[in-house]
Amino acid sequence: MLAALAACTTSSPKTAALTAQAAANPFDDATLRAITTAQDERNTAALLPYLANADVRYRRAAALALASVQDKAATASLQPLLADADPSVRRATAYALGQTGDSTAVAPLVARLTSSSSAPTDQRYLFEALGRCVTTTSLRQLVRGFSGTDTASVAGQAWALLRAGNRGVTSEAAVARAVALLDQQMPLAARQGAAFTLARTPRLDLTAYQTALTTATTDRDAVVRAAATTALGKVKSPTIASTLVGLARRDSDYRVRVSALRAMNATMYAPVKEAAWEAISDPSNQVALTAAEFFLNHASGEPGVLFLEKANKLNNWRVRATLLATALKLGGTERGAIRTAVQQRYAAATDPYEKAYLLKALGEDPAAYEFIEQATFASGQPLVVGSYGMEALVAMRRLPDFPEAQQAAFALTIRRAMGSGDVTIMSTAAEALRDPKLNLRQLLPDTTFIVAARDKLVLPRDLEAWLALQQTLDYLQNKPTTPAPVATAASHPINWAVVRSVPVQQQVLISTTKGEVLMQLHVADAPGSVASFVELVRQGFYNGKTFHRVVPNFVAQGGCPRGDGSGSTNYNLRSEFGDLRYGEGAVGLASAGKDTESCQWFITHTPTPHLDGRYTIFAQVVKGMDVVHRLDIGDKIVRVELVK
Fold first, then answer.
1. What percentage of the chain's residues is helix, strand, coil (to nearest 5)?
2. Could you please report the per-residue DSSP string of 12-62?
3. Which of 142, 244, 487, 634 has its CA 20 to 30 A from that of 597?
4. Dihedral sign computed on CA atoms, order 34, 39, 41, 44
5. 99, 613 Cβ separation under 8 angstroms
6. What is the average pLDDT across 206-232?
7. Strands 507-512 and 601-604: what pairing?
8. Is the pLDDT of residue 19 over 80?
9. Residue 116 pLDDT grade (very low, low, confident, very high; cuts 50, 70, 90)
């Protein structure tokens, strides 16, 4: 699909337009609008009759709508459509059943998979749905009941194992089958699914499969290599260090090098540290940052001043700040001098994100408490500085050498944070209050100041902060968790006039300080999300915003009006889980849970299948992925515009 989309673009993003005529917008059809409105309203009863409609378009649309609603009450009505005469309806139905996660769907899915009339094109959908619905008991049917060697079967089984593994449903037999599917003779889809299964399934010990995983890191596909390298981090053997060093030094794809550095741990520090030092100078800033994070997480037995000296030679502020954090964490006799050097950098820095990261670094040293607190609550500063400062104070409180005599002062800081009115600072303070290890309940027994702070928040704009404070109140008062007050569709219905004004192949040009990115909107799959995005683009909302979050080999995220990830519009959207997957360059909406999307969006660096069906995909990058891979925190979104 990515190749097909890329082939549709012109050579220049500024003048890009599809060579083919834009297809008619499907929502010119009133019935499709009615089905999607029922989806948006989470109205299962209104959707079920469409499953029996004579028009294939409406049956398919209703099934896909139920994939977003995710109501198990629809399972019985969906099951007959697994044998629908139309393949698109069958696939939509399987996808919807998987999205419900209903274990009662296992039997009909297995029956369809083993039916002689089951079409090869349905296999992947049926298998993935099965993987989303199986239990520990029924997993045996998935592992042992399908031993075919055809492309559709092995690919489907691999991705089914991933979907089950993402939910923590696995077994020794499932792991062994995933390893077998890594074989170079298997089709690419099977190898990718198997590699992701081993990388993403939690709590695996893959020591027994070291040889197979090492072989997989030579796969011709970079996605397989990166996931297999991540899986190597679950091998408990000292001999794995040399393999990771080789990958970090020599793999041609930066995402594999990132995975290798992340797979390194404290037990192998000595044999891998030279490779990590080399990676600090990697042409990819994402690799360099990951190397710095390796030292922050695992360095030991070395003087902090060594990392200060290394940091002072670097130009990339984010890598430098991470090494400075390492220097303070290791400390030593020069800790005071290191702290002074970091504080001086903070005073001289002009980039708010660099200042924020320097506060984060100072959070490694309890002696910097007063400096960080003053910076956190200083008036007139960029919001991101206060956000990171509060996080640094809480991180410092969790340090084992945090002075006991300073705990009362920290409690006062928490009260001050709650009264600040800043949603991020308040949220961070609330999380600290409900951390049992910090034992703040005794120092702050009266919860009225939390209630007062919560009651000043505005919903749905401040939903994330409201949830943080309410969960803290529930914890301190020993009450059950309060359900999230998710906004209903009536509070912000889909703007159908905007939806119908967007061509099916509408493209958007994002001009950044690193270059231009061209993406194509998925109006047919996520009309409500696209309408909101288009309205914001037409208002110029995104112009001048930043990429506030960049996680190497994962995502670049922007669009936050605060610049720290806590900003929102004054409305929420409902999640739209169309039949789309998070491949490289997928554009999704950030959220604090289902049906809480707003204005923030992210672009994936690589396939991230654990996000599938959990975060709305509303667009796909069709040109400029090289720019996306170079984006870093603080890079500007200069302008976002619709391309005609």
1. 55, 10, 35
2. -GGG---SSPPPPPGGGSHHHHHHHHHHHTT-HHHHGGGGG-SSHHHHHHH
3. 634
4. positive
5. yes
6. 98
7. unpaired
8. no
9. confident
| Contacts with 87 (C-beta within 8 Å, 6 or more apart), sequence order | 119, 121, 122
Q: Which amino acid makes up residue 100?
A: T
Express each pLDDT in 251-266 by its tens digit.
999 999 999 999 999 9
Summary count for the chain: helices (H), strands (E): 31, 8
Cβ neighbours of residue 355 closer than 8 Å, sequence gap 6 or more: 346, 349, 375, 382, 385
Residue recorded with tokens 């950098």: 345
Identify whether the C-beta of residue 200 lies closer than 8 Å to the C-beta of residue 610: yes
Structure tokens at 111: 């029956």
Does the domain at residues 494-643 carry the CATH identifier 2.40.100.10? Answer: yes
pLDDT on residue 9: 36
Strands (E), 36-183: none
pLDDT in tens, 589-639: 999 999 999 999 999 999 999 999 999 999 999 999 999 999 999 999 999
Using DSSP's 3-state secondary structure scheme, residue 574 falls into coil
What is the C-alpha separation between 204 and 224, in angstroms, rounded?
18
Predicted confidence (pLDDT) per residue in 290-324, tens digit: 999 999 999 999 999 999 999 999 999 999 999 99
Contact at 8 Å (CB) between 406 and 367?
Answer: no
Rounded Cα–Cα distance for residues 579 and 91 (Å): 9
Residue 8 has pLDDT above 60, yes or no: no
Q: How far is CA 256 from CA 110, 263, 572, in A?
A: 36, 10, 36
Is residue 639 within a helix (H) or strand (E), and if so which, with residue range? strand 636-643
User: What is the arithmetic mean of pLDDT over 439-468?
Assistant: 95
- Across 467-478, average pLDDT: 96
The Cα–Cα gap between 60 and 90 comes to 8
User: CA-CA distance, 632 to 513, in Å (whole number)?
Assistant: 10
Rounded to whole angstroms, the Cα distance separating 468 from 571 reads 18
Q: Is 253 exposed, middle or buried (0-12, 13-18, 19+ CB in 10 A)?
A: middle
Cα-based distances in Å from 612 to 128, 244, 370, 527, 547 = 11, 29, 44, 18, 22
Q: Are 569 and 539 in contact (CB under 8 A)?
A: no
Distance CA 158, CA 577 (A): 22
Q: What's the CA gap between 232 and 211, in Å, rounded?
A: 10
Q: Which residues of 437-465 are buried (b: 16+ CB within 10 A; e: fewer)?
A: ebebeeebeebeebeebbeebeebbbbbb
Please name the residues in contact with 442: beta carbons below 8 A apart, sequence gap of 6 or more.
none
- The domains of the chain are located at 403-485, 494-643
| Tens-digit pLDDT profile for residues 32-87 | 999 999 999 999 999 999 999 999 999 999 999 999 999 999 999 999 999 999 99
